[in-house]
Amino acid sequence: MTGAALDDALLAEVRGQLVGGAPADDAQLHAALRGSGRVLGSTALADLTRRARAELYGAGPLQPLLDDPEVTDVLVNSPAEVWVDRGAGLERVPLHLGSPAQVRALAVRLAAAGGQRLDDASPLVDARLPDGTRLHAAIAPVCESGAVISLRVLRSRAFTLDELVDSGGLHRCWAPVLRRLVTERANMLVSGGTGTGKTTLLAALLSLVPGHERIVCVEEARELVPDHPHVVPLTARRPNVEGAGAVDLADLVRNALRMRPDRIVLGECRGAEVREVLMALNTGHDGGLATIHANAAAVVPARLEALAALAGMPREAVAAQAAGALDVVLHLRRSGRVRYLAEIGVVRRDARGELVVDPVATWDREQDPVYGAGWDAFVDRWGGA
Ligand SMILES: Nc1ncnc2c1ncn2[C@@H]1O[C@H](COP(=O)(O)OP(=O)(O)OP(=O)(O)O)[C@@H](O)[C@H]1O
Ligand SMILES: [Mg+2]
């Protein structure tokens, strides 16, 4: 025999031969595979080593998809339905992951690799894998197909503004504007639909923060890796089996305030913690940044109101707090392969006291940016291009 299938029995044998928690190197994996007595040929050995590594420490059969440099998302809906985003939107890949139980086992193992539990009592997980990939997984009873797995590949390094300009994601004239907004300590909200590059732009902005400033980043699962020497990452924690020990984003924002932050950052505003953030930014903490899911800059006020309502804040109070707390909204859009900054808006209250985001500059990538009535005042306040 020159090769062997990487079946469950062989994997179990290899697992049994490996000691310690740290991932084995290739030599150790070779030895364990040879030790099984079932692998002889060196070609088969190299192939099995790669697949065993993916099974033991990586994303198993999904690992080759994640290793493709073009791929940003890998989505598993059921064993026979796997999708990837290679930059041009979702495409289905001809990959079969076996039985629903095998997909569930993969989800459980990935969650464990991200330090989280995934089982009947706790069927949803949001985690970060050791290589930085963001994992979301749901298993029965929440979904019927065994498991639904969503993986987001993260870049190991934040984009610079020049790279964003070169890739078509940022109009050349707006790079200096963003630099000014960061150094002048504007409180900013990065908005956009799902996967439009909000976290990516946020990391790029944080990389512009002067090195002597201390940034405290509050996130659900760690994603932000700005190029900055002084970042304190705080991540939320789910309750344990007894329902104790939960630390939510609102707790973390409150605590971040006591950690002598120069900048408070909330990776994504998606619940009641918006109240804490608005309060923090209203009480002298400027230069704060957060992202929010919104399909247009104009609906950001309604999103803020809806999230703040979860924290029991009436509309009127949200408008007053948000107008005081937030200066600028940077809205992203995606068109095919390109994710780009489409709008710069300012936050204010209108004559009726309603919260509004006024577009001061918009860009559709086809033509030069269009500047609105508020642009001159914006430049007076923050400095222009
Ligand atoms: N300007 C860009 N050029 C190339 N790739 C990008 C760009 N912006 C984002 N990406 C890639 O697109 C993917 C989605 O980006 P990101 O995670 O920033 O989006 P998001 O809006 O925060 O998504 P979510 O709604 O899931 O929070 C990532 O893999 C990221 O590396
Ligand atoms: Mg994001």
Automatic annotation (TrEMBL):
Residue runs in coiled coils: none
Pfam families in alphabetical order: T2SSE
Record InterPro entries: P-loop_NTPase (IPR027417), T2SS/T4SS_dom (IPR001482), T4SS_GSP_E_ATPase (IPR050921), TadA-like_ATPase (IPR022399)
Domain Bacterial type II secretion system protein E: 58-321
Family: Belongs to the GSP E family.
Listed name of the protein: TadA family conjugal transfer-associated ATPase
Higher taxonomy: Bacteria, Bacillati, Actinomycetota, Actinomycetes, Micrococcales
